[in-house]
Amino acid sequence: LLAAFLVSPTLSATRTATPTSHVPRAHDPQAHEPTTHEPTTHESRPTPTATITNTTTPAITNTTTPPDTAAGPTSPPPLDGPLALDLARAYSDHGREAEARSFLERALEADPEDLEALELLLALDPGRALPLLERRAASGDRTPLEILAGAYAEGGRTADAVRILVRLLSEQPMDPGLLARLAALDPAAAVAHAESLARSGLVEDDEGLGDLGDALAASDLRDAALAFYRRALGRDPSDREWLARVVDLSPAEGLRLVEDRLQEEPGDQALEDLAIRALAGAGRTAEAAERAERAWNADPSNLDALRRLAGLDPARALVHLQALGPEASPDDELLGDMADAFAAAGRTREAVDLYERAHALDPGDSEWREKLSRLAPDRLRD
Prior knowledge:
By secondary structure, the protein is mainly α. The chain contains 21 helices and no strands.
């Protein structure tokens, strides 16, 4: 059925076969009188062709009522909502927007509250869809309100979108997705909401504070996010997740916090890695490389330290890689990371060698194959 509608959206359920001439007519005196035949031999019996025609054609012809042309053009056959929506999507995917809108109207006739149909109509004809969506959102349900907020924001009605998001946050105050959307439209309103939550006592643990920081960071509200990560660390100073967030947003501050933690947990690999990350983020590349090398020398099984060193000083990392014994064989990700560093430094030969090794370790990883094909297609073997 879908294929038929794609060929012709005005396919009519009243299509009929044309009556054939063998149907009896009142003005034909021969039509009602039986025809008699003289006995014939088997050889003179009529061919089967006439018999097939007479047994099949009338059945097809008489099963459908011819259209009443006096009544005007016929209307399309009835469709249920899901089928009309499927047809609308198919036409939309093929760029036939007029037909898509037509079937969306029929889908909405069948179910005026169909949000999928409303969303598609919103993309094709916002002026037509917006009043329908506003009526649907009047119920107060979250999903239509979220869609309406997006439609307002897309149409430049920022204040209306913010009003809806603030309303939704009043019902779901800890929803990070809603807060991130509000922050994208009205940063001050988003920060004010997060601050009010922190003061109200609704956020009682480091997870909640960190989630608020993540929502603000997603909209690049770095200072506000950093303030919430600090609060989260105040609740749990040992949480590496929030410590890493601080390192990324403020490397110098993060390094101080990491060094403090290392006083309590000396030699901790995860903290050492964060310290290297903080140094690199602060632009202290030589110090970061030195620290990564020290971490590697202290524990040659710490491949993360070698990976960090590869990003900071690929030549020095390659020396250590070549000295690895078979019992400490690196994985393809480490080799690929080192190859990336050499490629970025313009050292193609070393990069190709490492991509080859990574590809040999994991032939199914298309990343190494693609990079190798760009740098040295002649060395790529199936």
